[in-house]
Amino acid sequence: MNDIFSLADELGPLKVIHVHEPGIGLQGVLVVDNVARGPSIGGVRMAEDVTTEECARLARAMTFKNAAADLPHGGGKSVLVGDPKMPRAQKQVLIRGFCRALEEVEQYIFGPDMGTDEECMAWVKDEIGRSVGLPREVGGIPLDEIGATGFGLSQAIDVAQEFCDFDTSGARFAVQGFGAVGKHVSRFLCAAGAIAVAVSDSSGTIYNPDGLDVDSLIELKAAGKSVVEYGAGEQRNGDAIIDIECDIWIPAARPDVIHENNVHRLNTKLVVQGANIPVTYAAEKTLQQRGILNIPDFIANAGGVICAAIEYQGAGEAAALAAIEEKLRRNTREVLETAQREQILPRDAALAMARKRVEQAMSYRRWHIF
Ligand code: NAD
Questions:
Q1: What pTM value is reported for the model?
Q2: 273 within ligand 1 shell (Cβ under 6 A)
Q3: Any catalytic annotation for residue 77?
Q4: Sign of torsion over alpha carbons 81, 84, 89, 95
Q5: Mind listing the pLDDT tens digit for each residue in 135-191?
Q6: What Rg, from alpha-carbon coordinates, does the chain have?
Q7: CATH number for the domain whose boundaries are 2-59+76-140
Q8: Domain at 148-303+330-353, CATH homologous superfamily
Q9: From CA 347, how far away is CA 254, in angstroms rounded?
Q10: Is the pLDDT of residue 6 over 90?
Q11: 199 ligand 1 Cβ < 6 A
């Protein structure tokens, strides 16, 4: 484990708290990175191999993600050691014990992450009253059900088309990963007149240059089937989604799927990152050189975290969608304009924007250095 002092810089972390209750096998860490913009929001990750260093890096990523989304929240993260598939009763004891131990750290709001879900957040709410990503019955806005992230992606695309030479209406798109994010962005794009020419899931790709019926694909997935079982199209392997000729290419599955060795295969005008870190930094540079516009993950897929922040304010679904629309459009435009003006990568423009927002907020603090 890295010494925590070596991870500290001018932005944070503000607090690092180790929680250890041997009696129930509880061991975890909370990192509150930066709260200049407001109390930190970040997920609780449960896995057997989590570390303090990983937690600190993820907390910093949340500082930038929340600032980039223009939320009144800082960044934090917590990790809990354990197998997320442990018996529910045991998991409940650990989650309840963990949040109870951190009850007084009001600068951190618990959210779901890998290994935790909305039920875990309901336990946290019951215990200390401070969590987001809740079930509907206790005030949650079910973001995967309403398609918060997919809706945000469609808004980012609507702004980005002005920077490309196509219109969303009539644009052809391909989606890698027809899950919660992929199916909703497809639905919103089709409603705007775009045409789905290919989608993929873990079983393969389905392609039809005349267009796929997204509602039928959603029904297939709901029935527990794969998109490749859709009748009216050509079945290809999973990797083939990369070569599809289209206007908009949307990765919505796994990290690092586009890298230096395959980025040349993309045949599109716009890449919109639904998944987290689906394109390596080197590949993003190549996209820029090839004149392919690219909207980085923490700008494009911020719909989920915006939804969580609105939920925390006690507002409902309509307010969440309005906030996603307003923030995604403004942030996408700002990032793409800066990238164009300064001839830099959209990711670098987004990071600079987020950092500046954090530094400005820090300038109002008592012990400010900016
Ligand atoms: P999901 O599990 O609902 O869907 C993932 C889909 O990807 C599934 O259909 C799966 O079959 C498919 N898939 C898996 N491996 C694949 C592969 N190699 N090739 C093609 N398809 C593959 O997950 P999700 O919630 O839609 O999240 C997708 C990505 O978006 C993840 O990286 C997640 O971190 C990110 N993300 C999600 C949200 C959200 O609101 N759900 C918000 C921000 C970021």
A1: 0.93
A2: no
A3: yes
A4: positive
A5: 999 999 998 889 999 999 999 999 999 999 899 999 999 999 999 999 999 999 999
A6: 21
A7: 3.40.50.10860
A8: NAD(P)-binding Rossmann-like Domain (3.40.50.720)
A9: 18
A10: no
A11: no
